[in-house]
Amino acid sequence: MTADEYWHGPPQLIRVYKEAYKLRVRHENEYAWLQGMYMHQGVAVALANGFSKKGGKKVKYPEKPADLGLETDWEKQDKARKERDKIIANLSLWKHQWDRARGKKSGEKS
User: Fold this and answer.
1) From CA 39, how far away is CA 47, in angstroms rounded?
2) Which of 21, 28, 48, 74 lies deepest, with the highest CB count within 10 Å?
3) For residue 97, how many C-alpha atoms fall within 13 Å in the half-sphere facing its CB?
4) Are 46 and 55 in contact, with CB atoms under 8 Å apart?
5) pLDDT digit string (tens) for 48-101?
6) What is the predicted pLDDT for the residue at 102?
7) What is the pLDDT of residues 11-26, one digit of tens each?
8) How far apart are CA 61 and CA 75, in angstroms?
């Protein structure tokens, strides 16, 4: 905010600049927290793998970035479609296994 805006502008402008400043500081704080989270994960993986017993299972750094809930509508729909396809495939497999098991039982009785 310039001095001219402060002295000669509408008083509501001060409130708007103050809110914008709060939002910017909040965004910077969340960004710093996110960077710290990634740093923490990296250090934790390095220490866990460095001090693990020989032949122990290695810890892996996450393959995808953290989900911040910023996905687009298209990404949400695609994710829902993949979940639905996965459920349908599992149900079809279970039905096939059930039918096969029931068919064997009825064939053995006769």
Assistant:
1) 12
2) 48
3) 6
4) no
5) 888 888 888 888 888 888 777 777 888 889 989 999 999 999 999 999 999 888
6) 86
7) 889 899 999 999 999 9
8) 24
- Length of the chain measured in residues: 110
CB 31 within 8 A of CB 39: no
pLDDT, position 85: 96
Instruction: With beta carbons less than 8 A apart as the criterion, state whether 42 and 62 touch.
Output: no
For residue 64, give the DSSP letter. Answer: S
Distances (CA, A) of 73 to 50, 69, 70, 81, 86: 41, 11, 10, 12, 20
Q: Which two tokens stand for residue 8?
A: 């000669």
Q: Is the pTM of this model over 0.70?
A: no
Dist. CA 35–CA 38, nearest whole Å: 5
